[in-house]
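User: Okay, second chain of the day. Same drill as before: sequence in, C-alpha cells out.
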Amino acid sequence: MDRRDFIKASAVAGTTATLAGCGNPETQLIRFIPEEPFLPGVATWKLSICTLCPAGCGLHVRVMEGEAEVIRNGEAGLPKMGLAKKLEGNPEHPISQGRLCPRGQAAIQVTYHPDRIRKPLRRTGSRGSGLFEEVSWDEAMTDVVARLSIIAGAKEQKTVAFLTRPLPGQRELLVSRFLQQLGAPPATVYEVFGDEVLREANRQSFGHAQLPTFDLARSRYVLSFGADFLGTWNSPVSHSVAYGEMRQGRPGIRAKFVQVEPRMSQTGANADEWIPVKPGTEGVLALGLAHVIFKLKLRTPSDAGSAGGRWRTHLLLGAR
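Assistant: Same drill. C-alpha cells below.
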C-alpha cells in the first residue's frame, strides 16, 4: 500500500463513528450503511454503541429518511438516505443497561454540529497561532504525500511522529503497517483517561490485562482511592446503575461509601464520607491501611460471628 492509498483508507475508516455497529468497544466496529430502503415518516431503530469514551455503552439510534447535503466528485447534491435523529440507551446492553450519559446523548452532534470540522485544515500562521485554512482532501493528501516523500528521500523517517488516541481494530493495524513500511517509529498513543495502569494491575492480580468489573450493586462498604467512578473513571454509566442498586436497591440495606481523593469530584460529592489527601498519596494511605489490618489481625464482621453475614467490601484504586 502506498502513502496516498493509506491516507485515503485511513480517512474513510475515521468517518462518523457515532453509528458504529454493536459489539465489543475494543474491537473493530461494523458501521451502519444507510443505503437501504426507508419508509418516509417512519422511524427505524438501529443497534449501535457510543464511541465518545472507551466504556462503549449500547445505543438505539433513531433513523428516518431525509435529505443530506453531499458533495461527490465536486458536485453538491441532496440524496435521500437514512439519517440518525436521536440516540437512546439500549436496555439489553450488558454495560449501560439502557442508560446513556449526557456526552453520549450529545454524540450525534459529531455528525450534525454546524461548527464541526468538515474538511482538512492547513496551518497558515505560526505554530500556536490558531490560524488555519480549509483545503480539499485531494490537496491535503498531495501535500502530506509530498512531505513524506521528501523525508523518505533524505532517509529521515525516524523524525516522523504519528500521534493518536487509541485506535480500534483494523485501523490500528493499518497505521502500524504503514509506519513500519515507511520506516518510521510506531505510533504514539495518548489518552487523557488512559487505563493502562489499571489493566496492568488487573493482570498482576488476576492474570487478565483487562478492565476489572466491580460488583458494586451487592457491596455493603466501598472504599475508593481516587477512583471517580461516577464521573470519568472506567465505565461511569455502568457504575452509576450499580451504585443506585447499592444505595437503594435492597430494602433495609444501605451500603456505606468512603471516597479518598485530593479534590472533590462528582463521586466524592455522593460519598457518605469524603477524605481529602495530598495528590499522589492515595496509594500510600491504602498501603498504610493494609499494613494496620494485617499487623493487628483485624477481622470482618463475618469472621467475628456477626449475625449480618459476610460483608461484601470493594476497594477501588484510581489509575491516575
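The chain has three domains: 16-112, 121-189, 196-317.

User: Thanks, on to the next one.
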